[in-house]
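Q: Hi! First time asking for a complex rather than a single chain. Here are the components, and I think there are two in total. Is that enough to go on?
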Amino acid sequence: MMKALGPLSRRRFLTAGASLGIGTIAAPYVARADDPTLRITGWGGKWGEIMKAEIGPAFESEFKCKLQIDSAFPYLPKLQASSRSAPIYDVMHTNSNEQWAAAEMGLVEPKIDPKQVPNLADVYPYAVSDKIVGVSIFTSAIGLGMRTDKGYGSVNSWKELWDAKYNGVRGGYVIPVNSLGQAFLMMCGTLFGKGQTDLDAAYAALEKLKPIKIVDFTGAMEKMLLSGEVGLCVIHDSGIYRYDGQNQPTDFVSPSEGVLSLEQVLTITPGSKMKELANAYVNYMLRPEVQKRLAETVWYSPANKKVKLDAKYDAKLLTTPEKVSKLIQVDWKWYNERKDEIDQRVNRIFRA
Amino acid sequence: MSSTTTTRPNGLALFILPSALMFALFFFLPIGLMALMSVLTGNPVVMPKVAFTTRHYARMVGDPYYLEVIWTTIRIGLVTTLVALAIGYPLAHWMARIKSRAGHALLLMAVLAPMLTGIVVRTFAWMTLLSDKGVVNQTLMSLGLISQPLKLMYTETGIVVGLVHIYVPFMVLTLTGVIGRIDERLEQAAENLGASPLRAFLEVTLPLSLPGILAGSLLVFALAISAYVTPILLGGFQIMTLPILIYQQISANFNVGFAAALGIVLLVISLMLVIAYNRALGLVSGQRELQ
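A: Yes, that's all I need. Here is the structure of the assembled complex.
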């Protein structure tokens, strides 16, 4: 039996101890409980690492808010399932084809207001063209990735992917689920038909592309190329350049017919309660210093014309109007209107 | 007195209530919602004007591609089940009849050990074995037995190999319990009456283990037709199954209604096969219906 020692009883001591402990653990959360939260989407990998370590915390500190990043793909079905008046995201970051689908469903605002996002004035025209919903903050170039240790010789054209010597080591994508695959299908129409919308020519070209190893996302293609499972494949420049300095026997080829644009697009949801903060985030991501840091980490070409990259990156990425003019943008609105029909056809083409 | 007994709350019912509620909430409600979504033009929670429609089912019936996908899914499920049974039954029989406790423990560990590793890891392990640059092809090529890599991946066979490896433990564990409960003296009596060991097994042990075969097969079949990771990785997206198609419809086409219709079809087919299998085995074992 324990007697109370003056005013301090055992019960008081335990209560005080527990309160102190809970208080210590909860303090950071309580302190930030009043901070507004901006819910966004974003990629994993190196992008996710730098966002978590540097870019995100700097934004939180400057705008006195909390950034909640969802990097568990796919984002659009989750946004689709959430309430229009209280959407799961305030800002959605994904590729252009999905942004167009989201805009068609009324899930994202089709355009960003230049008055709210002053940095929009400094972006290349492609970033806010009529082929873009929202704003493209970065792009990468879709071209060909190849092994340099197999004696294939130089590759200059998309059409060389059809060369029989690549049978068994040719790489492509699951077109229904991959932006690069979908953009490549449109390129097939240009290469072998009357233009991007010549689907019959594209289907015929895809038939002739077999045998081909197909994957669902670019990370898998990078691994296949690095392991030698594929020797020539469709890939974006970032998927090759990010292994710079590792002495890998791989290289990126910009075909003479042009490279396809793989845009990293930001949009704001109409039902967001954090519009001001959402616009501030878009503006922040277009700042030259933020663009430079991200571009030199993940090898994406910045959309802001004022960004000056270090020589190593400047030599390879699309950083001048001349280089940017080589980009071919896809009409995703047109594509999405026919997506079911295209999916059914390409699923048939690539089944074993 | 009897009235007092009948009005007293049943203690067992109170114990069952939480699990019954959970079952209703997380099993029946989602399936009910999925069935509803499959006959609606959109999601009524977020869309203002939604009507009933049969278009999702009409699309499936109207295009032979979807019927081919359904058949591929069932075929992979059936082959996986048969191979898992062929591999699992002898192992389960051995485990059930082994006299040594240490031997039984070792066998049990051997069966359970692969289950301690995730499905994704095990599937990637198969990829390192079966790919063009994998262990099998590289070994055969280095021995001069083949000049070009064998097509071991991106085929239905590759998928079945991966699935069987993953689901054999489910078959073995289900069968071991059933075979272990069969009285060995029945087999001894059959042999004493002149039956060979093979005949004693075929006419005594095998029929008595049919409930285990049924349970194990249904479990493996259900897991195999709903598998996603293994068919996608080992099939290289060139073998389309219903779970892959459902994911594609949700993640890339954003067509929840059609995905729900595909899910309902998968469920109905599974139920039909389960009922048919149940009846067939019931007739074979001399019972009208197995419990």
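A: Chain A has two domains: 37-139+262-319, 141-261+335-349. Let me know if you'd like any chain examined more closely.
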